[in-house]
Amino acid sequence: MKFNGLGVSEGIATGSIFYLTTPDLTVTRIDNCDVVSQRQRFLKAVNKAKGQLRQLYERTLETDSESAEIFHVHMMMLDDPDFTEGVEQLLNQGLNAEYATRTAGDNLKNMLEGLDDDYMKARAADVCDITDRVIAILKGIDQTPLKPKGKVVVVADELYPSQTMKLNKDFVVGFVTRHGSQTSHSVILARSMGIPCIVNVQRFNDIPHSGTIAMDGTTGEILVNPSEQQLTTIGDKLLRQQQQRKQLLDYCGKAVSKCGKSMDVCANIGNPSDVRQVLENHADGVGLFRSEFIYLDRNTFPDEQKQFAAYKEVLEKMSPLPVVIRTLDIGSDKQAPYFNIGKEDNPAMGYRAIRICLDKEEIFVTQLRALLRASLYGNLNIMFPMISDIEQVYRIKRIVQRVKDQLTSENISFADVPLGVMIETPASVIISDLLAKEVDFFSIGTNDLTQYTLAADRTNEKTAHLFDSRNIAVLRMIELTAKNAHANGIKVGICGESAADTTLTQFYIDVGIDKLSVSPAAVLKVKKAVCQCN
Ligand code: PEP
Ligand code: MG
């Protein structure tokens, strides 16, 4: 069986199908139920949920005591009278256990969200977790994570970055999804991990839930249960690709155009484990470490020590090459339940990135402390996302200074770290002359810049034809930013996905871009393109 989709992360992969379903946890109200039997069902489900949580707690305790604690809290919440008495009251009215659980859970969640205390607000997400768990048990949905025996291709309707981060990368060799777009963050993650990915698959419903898949992330071709002959053809293709990659090694040095313009070609990462690929592909540094991804594969805020360890690992492994770590850019399609962002009508333009950090300063300060402490272990540059107003930069600089003073008073050393901003809103382009006087470098985020300039949602398949990073309006934005950066003596890079678009490499050189940061697998291809330009 053959299927076609949009290849968005290159590479050939073969593995067994791992069908990831989002369980249907909707509930229906049923009146006039037998109170005793519904109460028994509820108590049995709660007991089973506690058993699952105990197992999760014990399994996680050794490797991640902080996450283990969350499972412990969930066990206790299942006994919380605010929850159990709420359910009990509804059961006594003759309602079914599923409906009573959901309604009591929602009431408690709304109550917690309305409180002033941030800690209690964050517990609202835990209430959702425990009610979902009990309802899944009541509905007979098996939620135990599958332990694959070999390599798997994950097949899913849609993949969220938080789900992608939680998958065991030792087993996953490919992603195939019904929905998705070139610049959605799950796709970006797949690219930075070097995992082939195909989205927008036609006749998706016909893909069986078991069997084998062979996929080509370049052409978007998917073969389900391929024949021996098809497997041989795929094997040959893989060999040819490997040979082509070997030839690219000729370009592993510094990229210099024929006219002598030198370009740094760095790599984008989402995780310390991606560094291996960065080094294997001879990148000139890490041009973008999307630090929010270390917030996504967990159930609670990573503390200062956890973040410090992650940043230190990347800096040490990359040293002496430069590493640009971007502060938290959570929100929009990158959601972690414990942030409690809630549903927004326009999430891309809503509560995200630097807006959250400047609103919840304690989260920002924790990250800045971890970053500055890690600065001693390599060549660190800190970058701030989603800037749309010069006032934000003034505030950031004041907070950074306060954190430095705090560390100094605690006798903790740190290095002198360049501070840069992402240019990814039209406003930041227009004021780039002012911004350039306040910071040490710019990095243009063409994913968001394209989305906001052309008013075309980067994650929406229906606006994909409008989302074009080669559009003249976007190119003019890039040109203006580069001009203002250089007029003020600072460097400018591009770290959005279009940095790897080799049809634009000559344009980037012509307008004076100093650095391109791309997925690790694209580094050598881009270096080659630079060398072939004038
Ligand atoms: C961008 O917007 O181009 C960018 C690099 O940031 P992100 O894709 O994480 O939003
Ligand atoms: Mg962005």
Q: What is the tally of helical segments? A: 20
Give the overall silhouette: globular
Low-pLDDT stretches: none
What Rg is obtained from the alpha carbons, in whole angstroms? 25 Å
Percentage of β-strand residues: 15-25%
Q: Summarize the amount of helix as a percent range.
A: 40-55%
Task: Give, in spatial order, the strands making up the sheet with the most strands.
Answer: 1-8-7-3-4-5-6-2
Structural class by SSE content: alpha/beta
The molecules bound to the chains, other than polymers, are:
phosphoenolpyruvate, magnesium ion
Largest sheet: 8 strands, mixed
What's the pLDDT, averaged over the residues?
93
Terminal CA distance reads 46 Å
Q: Determine the oligomeric state from the structure.
A: single chain
Tell me the total number of β-strands: 17
Description:
The protein has about 525 residues and is an alpha/beta fold. About 45% of the residues lie in helices and about 15% in strands. It contains 20 helices and 17 strands. The chain has an 8-stranded mixed beta sheet. An 8-stranded parallel barrel has the order 10-11-12-13-14-15-16-17, surrounded by 4 helices. β16, α19 and β17 form a beta-alpha-beta unit. The longest helix has 27 residues, at about 35-60. It is globular. The chain binds phosphoenolpyruvate and magnesium ion. Phosphoenolpyruvate binds near residues 288, 424, 446 and 495.
